[in-house]
User: What shape does this take?
Amino acid sequence: MKPLDIDFNDTQAKYSQIINAYREAIKTGVLLPDTRLPSARALADFYEVNRHTVMMSLQSLVAEGWLRSEQRKAYVVSSELPIDSSAQYKKDLPLKAFSYAFAKPDYDFNEVDLSVFTHVFAGGMPDLAAFPKQAFKQSLNMSARQFNAHDMHYSDSAGLPALKGQIISYLGQARALNINDLLICNGSQEALFLVAKAFINLGDFVAIETLGYPPARMAFESCGAALVDIKQDEQGLCVDDLEAQFKLRKIKLLYLTPLHQYPTTVTLPVARRLKIYQLCYQYGVLIVEDDYDHEFHYQCQPLQPMAADDPAGIVIYISTFSKIMCAGARVGYMHAAKPVLSRLKALKKLINHKNDAFMQLAVAHWMETGEFERHLKRMTKSYKARWNAMADTFTTLQKQGLSLSFTKPDGGMAFWLNCHQDVVTLKSKARAKGIYFQSEEEFYHANSVRSLKPNDGEISHIRLGFAAQSIEQAQAGLYEIFAEQLSLI
Ligand SMILES: Cc1ncc(COP(=O)(O)O)c(C=O)c1O
Assistant: This one.
């Protein structure tokens, strides 16, 4: 054979280009098995390169298995390749679409690129511009300096002791949670998935608020759970309905966001919490308490989590740094009764047997220096001002004639606003103007065994996050959302 023609470029080393050209020719049947290549000297002369360059390329093709080297004789295309001719390759090429046999159920994660919007009212986004980057950089530097074998090897898959210790003492002070162990996860989503994996067999029932957090629902469903919607009213989960469902079927888990119900923002009153706890104990149901934005409570001190008073050991407590820091840190954690925590730790090892040690050390240092607490204080103050301003803007809009109603939540990072109109259309018009928010229909569950979906006409709420934007920016965004209606008044 004569050497292949190669159109050399300047961006890649010549020996790589020779490898690529011969590999491709063999793969596509241009050079068939047992074809003898010209000598290295002949190839070097032809390509005007050093003979060593050619040798390096040929040896690399031998190492990859495309060529064999016949001692002192020549390089020959391997005879074991399942390629008979280039015609066959071409014939096989438009391979018929492979049918991937995915497990059920099906998922469709529509990730929205929020960077394209000028106003972002996403529900749970913290104000990243106010994050103390300099202080945290020092903690990251410390984490890199502290690089040591114990922390960096496969150990402490449930979390580095330094961070566990800081979080445990913080939870004791700030949330009345007196615990001595934790499982640190890659965000609370991993925690939710672990709980689902630990408890759900195909067809097990999980009770969930009618309007809820879709990623939690999907985690349960992915492990085979059948969801049961429980009614909720302006005070949160309806206890009577919960009991009726407990009587009707053997429910295994109840997923709750008691402090700031997701998405409606309501704080579950103490009386209901106690009744729910008693009912769950009576019917043998575990409570999965997702306390995702605990610190941001503005009317009074946040209520203690249900896990703070759990004599029966039936609460699995999940929380996160995604709101008090940022989602990118991927620090979440969970606590549960000892046997539950042991099982969750074992599963955690299976899914991911090490967390990001650099980040854990940095967050631990950040907490130890007091910077974390200072950041929390600053953000709570700033979010409180934004929460007040948002409510004031709604009131002004009402006075200007817009039909809006809302209850000012006790805390959190979002409002649940009743617009008394078709909010799906409102949302699509807003998105076209570069404004992002979510509307009510996104929070209903599609596949619950007892689906409590409203009629289309009743979908009139939108969820408006207020933490991530300045007061002025949020006000401007709100006026944009309702501009069309304001112009008609
Ligand atoms: C109800 C709820 N739980 C948990 C989370 C946090 O998830 P993660 O810790 O995985 O970032 C969020 C974030 O939006 C949430 O809204």
Remarks:
- The mean pLDDT is 93.
- The CA atoms of residues 117 and 431 lie 8 Å apart.
- The chain has 17 helices and 16 strands.
